[in-house]
Automatic annotation (TrEMBL):
Protein name as catalogued: PRC-barrel domain protein
Gene3D superfamilies named among the record's database cross-references: PRC-barrel domain
Domain of life according to the entry: Archaea
Domain called PRC-barrel: residue spans: 7-83
A Pfam cross-reference name: PRC
């Protein structure tokens, strides 16, 4: 898998996300930036529903996604069931703050250390 070191946020909207087994996990709708920390807090992944109706957005730690330059997709190494049980939010009601309790729960769900805790370890 080739990697890309930089990519514009607007260019990844609607990129497909798959797991390593090739199952479709949805599409990236946006990336959310924590302006206080100066980094991407999470990617918003659209999953479920039919033709955009009834789908939910799921916050996914940015570092959980790996870019696949071969077919311009992202790979998320989680089983579909874990994503189905992930904390999500309505596409018309995005979280508007970098609320640490909510973010910690989301990072923990995917098995990642939150970005602000990693910075303190350095």
């Amino acid at each position: 898998m080739q990697t890309r070191s930089i990519i514009r946020g607007k260019d990844i909207e609607d990129y497909s996300v798959r797991n390593p087994q090739g199952e479709d996990l949805g599409t990236i709708k946006d990336v959310v930036i924590d302006t206080g920390e100066g980094c991407i807090a999470y990617a918003a992944l659209s999953f479920g529903g039919l033709m955009g109706l009834g789908d939910k957005l799921f916050a996914v730690p940015w570092e959980a996604l790996q870019y696949n330059a071969t077919d311009d997709t992202f790979v998320l190494d989680v089983p579909k069931e874990r994503l189905e049980n992930a904390p999500g939010f309505d596409k018309d009601n995005w979280p508007t703050t970098a609320e640490r309790t909510w973010l910690t729960g989301m990072y923990s769900h995917y098995g990642y250390t939150p970005y602000w805790e990693r910075r303190m370890e350095q």
